[in-house]
Amino acid sequence: MRKAASLLGTFCRQFKGSLNRNFLVEKNEISLTLVPATIQTHGHHSQRRMSTKAKLADRLKGTEKNIWVDFSKLAVENKALNLGQGFPDYPPPQHVVDELMKAVTGNNPLIHQYTRSYGNPHLVNTLAKLYCPFLGRQVDPMNEITISVGAYGVLFCAVQGLINPGDEVIIIEPFFDCYEPMVMVAGGKPVFVPLRPAEKGGVLSSADWKLNPEELSSKFSSRTKAIIVNNPNNPLGKVFNRDELEMIAGLCKKHDVICISDEVYEWMVYDGNKHIKIATLPDMWERTITVGSAGKAFSVTGWKLGWGIGPPHLIKCLQVLHQNCIYTCPTPIQEAVASGLDYEITQLDHPEKCYLYTLAKELLPKRDFLAKTLSDFGMIPTIPEGGYFMMADISKLNLHIPDDDTDDPCDFKFVRWMTKEKKFTAIPTSAFYSKNHKSLGEKFVRFCFIKDDKTLKKAGELLQDWKASLA
Ligand code: PMP
Ligand code: GLN
Question: Which residue range or ranges hold the Aminotransferase class I/classII large domain (predicted)?
Answer without folding.
Answer: 80-459
